[in-house]
Amino acid sequence: MNSSLLPLGELARALERGEARPSAVLEECLSRTARLDGKVHAFLRLTEDQARAAAKAADDRRARKAPLSPIDGVPVGLKDLFCQEGVETTAGSRILKGYHPPYDATVVRKLREAGAVLVGKTNMDEFAMGSSTENSAYGPTRNPWDLERTPGGSSGGSAAAVAARFVPGTLGTDTGGSIRQPAALVGCVGMKPTYGRVSRYGVVAFASSLDQVGPFAQDVRGVALLLRTIAGRDPNDQTSSLRPVPDYDAELEKSVRGLTIGVPKEYFGEGLDPAVEKSVRAGIAALEREGCTVRPISLPNSPHAIATYYLVATAEASSNLARYDGIRYGYRAQTGGSLLELYEKTRAAGFGAEVKRRILLGTYALSAGYYDAYYLRAQKIRTLIRRDFDQAFAAGVDAVVSPTSPWAAFRLGEKVDDPLAMYLNDIYTVPVNLAGLPGISVPSGFTQAGLPIGMQLVGRPFEEGTLLRLARAAERALALPHRLPPLLERS
Amino acid sequence: MSVHDWEPVIGLEVHAQLLTRSKIFCSCSTAFGAPPNTQVCPVCLGLPGALPALNRGVVDMAIKAGKAFGCRIAERSVWARKNYFYPDLPKGFQISQYELPICKGGAVPVPQPDGGVRKVALTRIHLEEDAGKNVHGSTGSQVDLNRSGVPLVEIVGEPELRSAEEASEYLKALRLALIYLGINDGNLEEGSFRCDANVSVRRKGSEKLGTRVELKNINSFRFVRQAIEHEIERQVAAIERGEKVVQETRLFDNEKGETRPMRTKEEANDYRYFPEPDLPPLVVSPEWLGKVQVPKLPHERMAELVAAGLPATDARTLTADPKLVELHARIVEAAGPEAGRRAANVVTGEVARLVNEGGLDLSAPKFQPAQIAEVFRLQDKGTLSSTAAKDVLAEVLRTGKAPAQIVQEKGLAQVSDESALETVVDGVIARSPTEVEKYKAGKKNLLGFFVGQAMKELKGKGNPGVLNALFKKRLD
């Protein structure tokens, strides 16, 4: 097997043993991407020259047995909202076309310092607003398992790049499910860490109190290695946590015997595709076989999560996106008129429909006379949602398990005209962001049509280690047959 | 009816830039006057992805103000976003404090002409970031973001002021207090101390407040009085014509000396305040609070000086300028507590004169206060006559040279040594037999003649006291 087809965790071992060379891995990745990304459109742009130079430096370190980290020399893709010095960063929006940030996001710096080879920027829903990557101003990304279907979103490009084996690992962001849902839809592992676990400095903001950076990889170990690289306190992000970052990899194979899994009834109700439910129940059974205790629980306020989310997230977004005004950087409309006209024309032409919809919603929610009824009330419900989880954890539940998404990958265009249907993609993932908890999506199987299905595990704050162990146990116990997307089989 | 039948109600909001070296949410310099957009970074430029990181020195200064004015300092205050669009506001919102500011209540002590102190109540003091500046030129408008992110305190006073004069006094007292606290430079022209005034009028005796108008763009004490006086007259005239005062924001035009409308209530921004999600609430522990030292305010220093025996006028002159009062304190420190009045004379006299003439910059003085104490000692010892002491003092203030060196270079030392003077005294007596006889016969006022003769010979450097004593000893 080509080493570039190995899941990140295994590639790291191969690199350590000298069985793979960073430059060779990179070349395989680049050639596969060149061959197939015309069909998938996972990447918005590649930084091949920089990547080759970085890989060459990694070759030397690996040859000297002096790697910077376990992921030294591993090719990594970045969702196009991570600022990378001198590399165009658009957040999937026309309004940032041509914008080259003068600085690196903290996670980008950490990846570089760990020796990761940064390969390029991946496609996304504009400003991370969406669940299908169809809201990208640069065209949608397609699901490597079925090119007529979406890879999910908003980090669809990052998910598809991993699924198509263009790169072993990528980073995305998750505000309401934007890592976990696409991970489920393309059949890879994706994690949203606890709010505050990873620095948001240099990450183009959508909703500041919900956004969190996280990794994608084919295997749980790959996610553990990437998370360890990017996590930790950053003085530039005062919402980042001071808690030390554990060595997730070291604990990964530890038994999960004795851990308690809560199955919330609210997450298995109406609207859930039976094929998805069946697969997730099989995943739960696998965890039971590994020694976990399974217990039914209730999270009664979770059904209010979508409504709550679309007030909190849009309110913050309306403010976060105010800086895109055509004055300092990015797109500016041509107008000889007033300042107001410059703002209006720039923002009208620079933002896509979904972004405008959310700015309007958020502006409304914060307006004088409506603040208490909408924003403040939403914050109260947010507290209740968090409290439900707290109570479950206090009652001895170590992780909450559910489907990641109510359905497998849907067709491109299927939901674009129905925003509310689109919002329901995130029904199981959004409560986790509102509660600030860590969540992971791990593959649990396939539909009859061969589309991947994901299972979500949600843990206590800063218990990413426990979640990764559980995800690894599921991965081990389910032992899903090694399958490549048909796209790769054919080529 | 006339203006005298009406009572103005005035409340002032002051924005004061804090004297931290770096900005409130990044490490860029706050220095004034640098070329445009040279003191900027991703944070204060509001670039995508940048996040604020609080400069705790800013909080120290707000605590200092809060303690000095007797405010309640919140253990937990909350940052808020004030949202509006303007080219000088790079994020499209200003990080401020709204529902939970760092300080509530308190009062600014305003010294009164009668020597008393009036306390003008404060509503709140909160922290926020400054915006940049729009620069309008013939070829279009440009934005300078050097000022973006400079820390500000907004000090909101209760509407307790009843005239333009009171408003001006309050403002002067507040400005001086902030300078004493070392948290603001008090520079109205450069905009580091800015004032907005809320003005309304009501019929004398009425409890109900009139409609309030906010005045902006007032950048000198003279303009504060002018703007408020003009606004009071305008409002009274409107009401007396049977019109209503419209709630609005008006801009003061300092060339025409009048206010004109900027925006009405309907046009006012809805700032959509909400808690800043990028910053955790600001928690000030009792330990932190305890660590912040508060220097004395002007009225406290004044009371101390008067208690130490200084005339009130001197005390007032000294405390009106923190540099003068500080210099005075340091001279007294070096010369001893009994030198208080003498030090005050020097500081309010020679020093103040030199400062006014531009011959002395007290923010970078060349001399040490101890050198002035040294001049006092030389005079007391008799080394310097009072005239010579003045000369030496002037030279010390200008050059910072050691007094002893000046005395030597200029040959100003007074001869007090008896053995050295005896020769001269004996010579005068020997040369003036007639006068000696008359003196001995009872014409005692001839003593002045003898001392004068001796002084002439000594070129004015003889110690007159010692000479007097010596002649008396010889002739009586």
Written account of the structure:
The complex is a heterodimer of chains A (491) and B (476). With 491 residues, chain A is an alpha/beta fold. Among the domains of chain A are: 3-255, Amidase signature (AS) enzymes (Alpha-Beta Complex), CATH 3.90.1300.10; 303-378, no CATH class. In chain A, 40% of the residues lie in helices and 12% in strands. Chain A is built from 17 helices and 11 strands. Chain A has an 11-stranded mixed sheet, with helices on both faces. In chain A, helix 4 (106-113) links the parallel strand 2 (75-79) and strand 3 (117-122). In chain A, helix 1 (8-16) crosses helix 7 (220-230), helix 5 packs parallel to helix 6 and helix 10 (305-320) crosses helix 12 (353-366). The longest helix of chain A is centred in the last third of the chain and has 23 residues, at 372-394. The radius of gyration of chain A is 21 Å and the shape is globular. The two termini of chain A are 14 Å apart. The mean pLDDT of chain A is 96. By secondary structure, chain B is α+β, with helices and mostly antiparallel strands. Chain B folds into 3 domains: 3-291, no CATH class; 298-410, no CATH class; 418-475, Arc Repressor Mutant, subunit A (Orthogonal Bundle), CATH 1.10.10.410. Helices cover 39% and strands 20% of the residues of chain B. Chain B has 15 helices and 17 strands. Chain B has helices at 56-68, 164-181, 221-240, 286-291, 298-307, 312-319, 322-335, 340-357, 369-381, 386-399, 403-410, 418-431, 433-440, 447-457, 464-475, and strands at 6-17, 72-73, 76-77, 79-83, 93-97, 103-104, 107-111, 117-129, 133-137, 140-144, 151-157, 193-203, 213-218, 248-253, 258-264, 274-275, 282-283. In chain B, the strands form 4 sheets. In chain B, strands 1, 2, 6, 7, 8, 11, 12, 13, 14 and 15 form a 10-stranded mixed sheet that branches. In chain B, a hairpin with a 2-residue loop joins strand 9 and strand 10 (140-144). In chain B, helix 2 packs antiparallel against helix 3 (221-240) and helix 14 (447-457) packs across helix 15 (464-475). The interface between A and B is large, with 44 and 28 residues.
